[in-house]
């Protein structure tokens, strides 16, 4: 396994992998092609975007972390917006391996913290806790729906 910044030539494979993962259990997202393309561009084409990929021994793309780097008073932070592993590889330790491999990339970019948000009712919540992420007791994630 190896992790590196997502190759531009693998952008289409990344979109396909994302769609396969999040269109199935437990999320069942219903992406149309236009919204998916807009979302992927939002995640990958900003000055502070950081897209990291994991490839298996045959160079097949099997996972991605899509997010942003922000500067903070404690140093640089990487906010993961999307983290996904091929459904064929889930539950086999590949996600944990990917997070470990990402540490070296992030350390080289002088990033001090990884932040993310997830739902407590999905398996990802326990996966992140198992991989040394902790819930911040004094922080909450808030949302406001804009009235139509």
Automatic annotation (TrEMBL):
Superkingdom assignment: Bacteria
Domain spans labelled N-acetyltransferase: 1-147
Pfam family, one: Acetyltransf_1
InterPro entries per UniProt: Acyl_CoA_acyltransferase, GNAT_dom
Name of protein: N-acetyltransferase domain-containing protein
């Amino acid at each position: 396994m190896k992790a590196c910044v997502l190759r531009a030539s693998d952008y289409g494979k990344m979109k396909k992998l994302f769609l396969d993962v999040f269109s199935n259990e437990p999320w069942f997202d219903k992406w149309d092609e236009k919204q998916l393309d807009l979302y992927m561009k939002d995640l990958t084409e900003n000055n502070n975007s950081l897209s990291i990929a994991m490839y298996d021994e045959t160079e097949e793309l099997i996972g991605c972390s899509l997010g942003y780097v922000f500067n903070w008073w404690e140093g640089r932070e990487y906010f993961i917006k999307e983290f996904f592993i091929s459904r064929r590889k889930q539950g086999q330790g590949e996600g944990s391996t990917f997070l470990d491999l990402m540490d070296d990339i992030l350390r080289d970019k002088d990033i001090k913290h990884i932040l993310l948000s997830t739902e407590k009712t999905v398996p990802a919540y326990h996966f992140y806790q198992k991989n040394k992420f902790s819930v911040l007791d004094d922080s909450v994630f808030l949302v406001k729906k804009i009235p139509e």
